[in-house]
Amino acid sequence: MDMQNRVVIGPSGTTAEDVVAVARGLARVELSDEALAALAAARRIVDDLAAAPDPVYGVSTGFGALAVRHIPAGLRVQLQRNIVRSHAAGMGPRVEREVVRALMFLRLKTLASGRTGVRPEVARAMADLLNARITPVVHEYGSLGCSGDLAPLSHCALALMGEGEAEGPDGRVRPVAELLAEHGPAPVELREKEGLALLNGTDGMLGMLVLACDDLARLFTCADITAALTLEALLGTDRVLAPELHAVRPHPGQAASAANMLKVLAGSGLTGHHQDDAPRVQDAYSVRCAPQVAGAGRDTLAHARTVAERELAAAVDNPVVLPETGRVESNGNFHGAPVAYVLDFLAIAAADLASISERRTDRLLDRNRSHGLPPFLAGDAGVDSGLMIAQYTQAALVSEMKRLAVPASVDSIPSSAMQEDHVSMGWSAARKLRTAVDGLTRVVAVELCAAARAVELRAADGLTPSPAASAVVAAAREAGVRGPGEDRYLAPELAAAEAFVRGGGLVAAAEAVTGPLA
């Protein structure tokens, strides 16, 4: 992406940064000259095969279990139109705009590879749809994560044909035909193989994986910051964060999390009091093992990003055009297993990170384990309940995230008259991961509320928090997360904390003192 907020797609794939720029930053999309040349070359191969008498899957046959029928030339435009219409069979709530934009961009990336056989004008039409900020209505249910994200991609292909519904630039959902008439592009008539090529990819689950990786990278850093604040508030020891201890067990994520916590705790007057009034040899697991748990999640994220990078360089279609040999060959590259597995793995890591965060919060609120803090961090305990029910909310979120951590990718329901008899359920894995990421954001926000309040209570007793902790607390207060005191309507403060975490304010406040965190 260049300084004009523009992404250029070539035939060799794209990057995660470009996906995020298009999906969330609404960056403009352009096709490179190399991509247009690759598209034209692949199309010539498809046209030659379409003119030949021998049947070729996707070019001159039916689809799935109906591939045994040879389709004459006069019915092939109808064949491609019909596969889009019949497969646009999603149900349920609308999928978020950023997901649909990511899905469309990634399908365009595969088209631009020159291995699908669509005409350049079809690829240009998809780029134009993205640039006009017309987002087709895609529904929650309809993909089994094999043979591609069929129903979601079909709803997008339907929009290229000028049919269905879409959200316009103003956010209103209207008939696609009206939106195209106002904003362009013109509807396209699909020819041999083009309908199938628009449907047959892992683009939805991959788009959600890329977006989740972007979110989780920030959330792992947020969790390191809140864990450091909790350690301070509990008068714990930072000696367990020493680099030489983590070098003994050389997991890179663990070392990164420990280093983050050390940076946040630098200059703290609260750490090291574990031998004072109630001597402790060591802190509880939820505090002492924070880098090990968050670090394992970081390493899981690194693996997921490796898988995403491979998919971003791939051309996922069936059949696929092989320009090197002039052939069009059936294959199984549309199977979503590689993506589905890491989507499930990330949901497990997110649930466990939320679980340890909730345990730290509970420790801050329990007078028997908080080393001198008031019950529930309340102003006048008994009259005030403090953050008691905020922890209930956190616990409810964690419980849901544990349910969401059950893998989707181990399930499979046969389809298409047993022709498609093993599927990945990767779309389902992606959808539940998005919910888990939202849950983790809220769980970390609750820990932030508790830890910031507890740090302020320690400061009132004459103990000085670290400069980074002080900066985080001040920024949180500025963002609407209020400090200790009597009970008040708490939901707006929790919402403010969530926005502070989600929007990057927490990381920015800490980094203003620590410098860049991992």
TrEMBL record:
Give one GO biological process term.
Answer: protein homotetramerization
Q: Which GO terms describe its cellular component?
A: cytoplasm
List locations, semicolon-separated: Cytoplasm
Question: At which residues is 2,3-didehydroalanine (Ser) found?
Answer: 147
Q: How is it modified after translation?
A: Contains an active site 4-methylidene-imidazol-5-one (MIO), which is formed autocatalytically by cyclization and dehydration of residues Cys-Ser-Gly.
> Cross-link 5-imidazolinone (Ala-Gly) maps to which residues of the chain?
146-148
The primary location reported for this protein is cytoplasm
Q: Which domain of life is it from?
A: Bacteria
Q: What is its EC number?
A: 4.3.1.3
Keywords recorded for this protein, A-Z: Cytoplasm, Histidine metabolism, Lyase
Q: Which GO MF terms are attached to this record?
A: histidine ammonia-lyase activity; phenylalanine ammonia-lyase activity
* Reaction catalyzed: L-histidine = trans-urocanate + NH4(+)
Instruction: Read off the InterPro entries from this record.
Output: Aromatic_Lyase, Fumarase/histidase_N, HutH, L-Aspartase-like, Phe/His_NH3-lyase_AS
Q: Give the metabolic or biological pathway.
A: Amino-acid degradation; L-histidine degradation into L-glutamate; N-formimidoyl-L-glutamate from L-histidine: step 1/3
Q: Does the keyword Methyltransferase apply?
A: no
HAMAP family hit by this protein: His_ammonia_lyase (MF_00229)
Q: Which family does it belong to?
A: Belongs to the PAL/histidase family.
Please state what the protein is called: Histidine ammonia-lyase
Per the UniProt record, the lineage of the source organism begins with: Bacteria, Bacillati, Actinomycetota, Actinomycetes, Kitasatosporales
